[in-house]
Amino acid sequence: MALYRIATISYYTQYMDVLLLGASGRIGQRTATELTDRGHAVTGVSRSGTVDGVEAAEFVAVAGDATNADDITKLATGHDAVVSALGPSDDESPEVLTEMMEAVIDGLRRAAVDRLVWTGGAGGLKVGPDTMLIETEDFPEEWEPIARAAIDAYDILDETDDLKWSYVAPAALIEPGERTGAYRTAEHELVADEEGDSYISMEDFAIALADELEEENAVYTYLGTGY
Ligand SMILES: NC(=O)c1ccc[n+]([C@@H]2O[C@H](COP(=O)([O-])OP(=O)(O)OC[C@H]3O[C@@H](n4cnc5c(N)ncnc54)[C@H](OP(=O)(O)O)[C@@H]3O)[C@@H](O)[C@H]2O)c1
Asked: Under the GO molecular function aspect, what terms does this record hold (predicted)?
């Protein structure tokens, strides 16, 4: 069952120091903006240490490699929570996502940070009682490797019970778009509209990540998002 919410205004007042992995990415940049607009202090990580498109005094960009647990330990230390918008580069095997997941979990443990909100994939969400989105006939073949890697990364997280994790997946389709503040969530299920279309803008997905970080409604959960 999907939950509907309209969240244009956040009344959250407990500001956090957040380490944002993948801050230079398409979802990451929007997440950095959403979090800083809410008053959180954000340290944004990319491999180069450069993050374009985020204009906020409470934002600092730093360099780090998310496949390296030592880097994650150093970077995460002193933060209240870690948010990931990590994704493999086009020239890498999608399975590097599982390396990132292992390094991030290890690094958080060593840094004594116990909250992780991870941007996942929609492929492992249910579209029927026994069917995942990735198993459907129409699932694009070119998306299969990254969708499989995202499911493998989820399986690693699902074995983890000493961190308060949330695995938040976009809709089947996510693109740059409008920040409407209205979206729905469903635990382990794909969120689709009445026509069966599953979509969310990157701006609204960033709201969903920030809401989950603040409200902890889906700890130890694979959460689908969409309209
Ligand atoms: N429908 C769906 O299920 C769906 C659709 C879209 C995206 N997603 C998922 O959402 C996530 C983010 O997507 P996106 O489109 O925003 O990705 P993106 O634009 O490619 O951004 C990926 C980010 O990860 C960073 N990164 C990659 N390797 C790294 C490493 N070793 N160390 C540190 N940072 C690293 C990149 O930073 P640098 O390259 O600057 O270092 C960049 O900031 C991905 O996991 C993707 O699979 C799911």
From this structure: oxidoreductase activity, acting on the CH-NH group of donors, NAD or NADP as acceptor
